[in-house]
Amino acid sequence: MRDAYTEQLDELAESLAGMCDDVARAMEKATRSLLEADLRLAEEVIDEDVKIDEIRHTAEEKAFALLVLQAPVATDLRIVVSAIHGAGDIERMGDLALHVAQAARRRHPQPVLPEQIAPYFAEMGKVGVALAHKAATVIRSRDLAAAAELESDDDAMDDLHKHMFTVLMDRTWTHGVEAAVDVTLLARFYERYADHAVAVARRIVYVVTGQMPGPLAV
Amino acid sequence: MRDAYTEQLDELAESLAGMCDDVARAMEKATRSLLEADLRLAEEVIDEDVKIDEIRHTAEEKAFALLVLQAPVATDLRIVVSAIHGAGDIERMGDLALHVAQAARRRHPQPVLPEQIAPYFAEMGKVGVALAHKAATVIRSRDLAAAAELESDDDAMDDLHKHMFTVLMDRTWTHGVEAAVDVTLLARFYERYADHAVAVARRIVYVVTGQMPGPLAV
């Protein structure tokens, strides 16, 4: 019985880790669809989001079944509660990748981003995708050092996000209000995506140590 | 023992309902600080957000203790899991009210919003605050009709949000890029605030019926 139980806990963790890899791929494709005005790729991301929602639903059901059947305590209970939280965060990351793809589709065949701005988003995409994959690693390994790395990786995203605002507010911005609105929202999507990846890693720290790290700046 | 347990469940629900009322008041004040460029009020909201974070933390601890000590099943388990989710949503509503107040503080003594735009935000504030109070009522009453009302109230917010983009994209927008960026983010904060209130109500539907309503458009 105990073995089946441990297996169930491992399965739950693995579905969350797999979900992180899924939303990493979604953001990687969404970013490419944005940078290359690739409608086919944007629609792929949009169509696939429903799968991520389903995996979240299944993960929650697994967590719920564990609570009912096993009444876990201590670390095991922390794993299950963290999985419930984590599933929510990761689904939201999928939604944010979806929003990026929707922006690419909305402006197609026009590019969403002014040429001068595109490299920043290529970088935000890279940082975001790496964060999501690293969150998957942290879920699988429960490696506290890797969890701590996500915090500093997120600083890179915050710097890019802040820099976008400096560029937007600059008097030399010549791309008009529509592009400014798009860039504002898109930068926000990437920044929030990274925040959720960090939140996932923080929950793993909680699983291992029983303590949540200090609050995340929002 | 059973009575103490029911009392604990009620207490947990009441702390979440109280949290909803708190973030309603926070958004009410944040909106006033925005519309009246009232720095004192903005700082009040900013200072008080830490209290909301603490209440969330306490609510999660209560939920955790219930899981450990009572190993609830069926409806009771749904209440506890929904409380864990709800606490996250409501804390985020507090964060969004905080972001509105931060915008008011950042531009002080200048108003953030062009005069033409202010009435829309007065309305978004009113709709958001009403949604948060209604979410509190739904938590206390478990009234499914009231829970359904939140969905249609949220449509009003979505309409205001969409309308803001029409105004922003209009060629007659004369307020420049900085104001456009502020309006874009602020409108997003109000819209997300409303989404989280709806998510809280949906979890109550789940508590009562065992079924989640269909997905929330994001």
UniProtKB/TrEMBL annotation, chains A, B:
Keyword Cytoplasm attributed = yes
One Pfam family per UniProt:
PhoU
Look up the domain of life of the source.
Bacteria
Q: What compartments host this protein?
A: Cytoplasm
**Signal peptide boundaries:** none
Cite the entry's keywords alphabetically. Answer: Cytoplasm, Phosphate transport, Transport
User: What is annotated about its quaternary structure and interactions?
Assistant: Homodimer.
- What is the recorded function of this protein according to its Swiss-Prot or TrEMBL entry? Plays a role in the regulation of phosphate uptake.
PANTHER family annotated for this entry? PHOSPHATE-SPECIFIC TRANSPORT SYSTEM ACCESSORY PROTEIN PHOU
Q: Matching NCBIfam families, A to Z?
A: phoU_full
Report what the protein is called: Phosphate-specific transport system accessory protein PhoU
Q: Which organism is the protein's source?
A: Pseudonocardia ailaonensis
